[in-house]
Known about the structure:
Blueprint: H1 4-13, H2 18-24, H3 31-36, H4 44-53, H5 58-61, H6 79-82
Amino acid sequence: MVEIDRIYALAKEKGLSNSFLCKKIGKSTSYLNDAKNGKHGISDADLSVLSDILDTTTDYLQGKTDKKEKPDVNVELSEKEKR
Length: 83
């Protein structure tokens, strides 16, 4: 289940409005508020876009972890792995 309050808090930290987030995922400006009020859920696709915009993970937005930061994905590949 998505923790809407986490979305609101991260948006505020980044200076983004809820209506901006809704527009970025192609939804009405009341989409997040309606989700918070139990009128509907948030799809995995929308959650993925929101996590990218908010520079966090879907696990954080779902309350599965308290770590906001995305993991470091700068991994060195061997020459064999590059081929």
